[in-house]
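fyi for ur records
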Amino acid sequence: MSIDTESPLAHLSEDTIEALAKEFDAIHAQVYADLGERDRRYIKNVIAVQRQLAVAGRVLLLGSASKPAWLAGTACLGMAKILENMEIGHNVMHGQWDWMNDPDIHSSSWDWDTASTAKAWKHSHNYIHHTFTNIRGKDKDLGYEIMRIDPHQKWHPVYLAQPFYNVLLMAFFEWGVALHDMDLEAVRAGEKSWPEVWEDLKGIAGKARAQVVKDYVGWPLVSAGAFGLAQLAFRGRLGQPATSRLGRRLRALRSTGRLSVVADALDRTIPGVERTFLSTLMADATANIIRNVWAHGIIFCGHFPDQTYTFSPDEVENETRGGWYVRQLVGAANIEGSPLFHIISGNLGYQVEHHLYPDMPSTRYAEIAPQVREICERYKLPYNSGPLIRQWFMVHRTILRLAFPGGTARPKPGPYHGELDHDGAPGPSEAARFRERVPAGGPTAGPEHDPGGVQGSPPLNSENAPGTPRGQE
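which gave:
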C-alpha cells in the first residue's frame, strides 16, 4: 500500500470479504439478466451519431479554407474521434457488447482509429491492467512505464523531464499507448521474443500508414479537389490566397512565356487548392490532438489522483475474489460530470464501476453507482470521486512533485459517507436511500440485513482464477 497508508482491507475479516464479493457478483448478475433491446439500441445509436458527426466534419472541411467551416468541421471531427475512441472502441473491445452476438459490434472483430493494434491493446489493457490493477511492478499502466506517479517508484534522473514529456504524451497519446502496448520491459527482460516485437511493429506501422493516408493525404486531397471543381464551376470567381508557393511558380512560368495559357488557368485555381489541402490537413491533425488530449485527461484522472491506492505484490499474494474487488474499488477514481460528459468520456467518469465490471456495458455504470456506494458505506470502504478539474490538478501536481527525488503519499480518503445536508450535517445514508429503492420483497444483502446474504446466483467464473475479471483474455 502507499507509504504510511493503511490497507483498506485491514478492518475486513475473511468472512466479510467473502460476503462483499457475493454482493458485487450479484450486481453483475442482476445487470446481465436485464440486458436487452434498450442496451442494443443505445450502442447502435452511439455508433450512428459518431458516423454522422464524422460525415458532417468531412463535408464541412470541404470548405476548410473558410475559418467558420474549419472550426465547425474540426469540432465535429474531433468529437467523432472522441466517441469512436472512448465510448465505442474502448468499450466494444472490452467485450461489453459481446452478449449481443453481433458480428459487427464484437470484441473479436472490432478495430479502432488509433495507433494501437486491437490485439496488443487487449492484451496490455484488458488482461494485464485489469487483472493486476495498481500492483507495483505488474500493472504496466502504472505511470505507463515512463513516469513516476507513486513515491514507491525508485527515482531516476530521467524523471526530471516528465512534466515536459507528459505534455508531448498528451498531444500524441495514441502513439505513446501503442509503444506502451508493446511491453518494452518484457522485451528487455527477455520475456518477449523478437519475432513478437516485429509483429507488433508491423501492426503499428500498418495503423500509422492507414492514419497518415486517410487523415493527411486522402481527405485533404478530397477537400482540395472539391475546391478545384467548385472554382471551375464558378469560373474562377472563388476567393484565393494572395500568396502561394505553387502560385508563385506558375506566375514565374507565365512571365517567361512558357506554357503561359496553362499557367494562367492553373493560377486561377491552384492557390486555393493548395490552401484547402493544407487547411484540411491541419484540421485532421487538430482533431487527432483533441482526441488524444481528451483521452489522456480522462484516463489519467481515473487512475492517478491522490485518492487511489497502490499495492505491493506481497499484499495481494493469495488474493481472494473479494480482495480483487476491493483492489479495483480503491485503485480507481471517478470523475463527476453531466450525462453528456460521461458519454464522451466513454463512461470512464465511472472508473470505479468500470474497474469492478470491465465487461459490463458502460451505459449501466450510472445505474449501479448508487449500489456500489451503498456497499462502500456499509463496509466502511472509500468511494473515490471528484470533479474533473480537481482530479486533473491532483494528477499533474503528482507528476510535477515526483519528477524530483523523495516524495510521500498524500492522505487517502476515509470510508464513504452520504452527502451532507444544507446545514453541513450528515444527511440520510446511502444505505438508507438505497434500501428505499429496493422493491418490497426484493433481495437483501450485507451485515445490517437478515442473515442469508445475497438472494441470487453469482455469475460463473470457472475459467479464471479468483481475483481475475470476467470477460478478459
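Residues 78 and 103 are 27 Å apart (CA to CA). thats all i got for now
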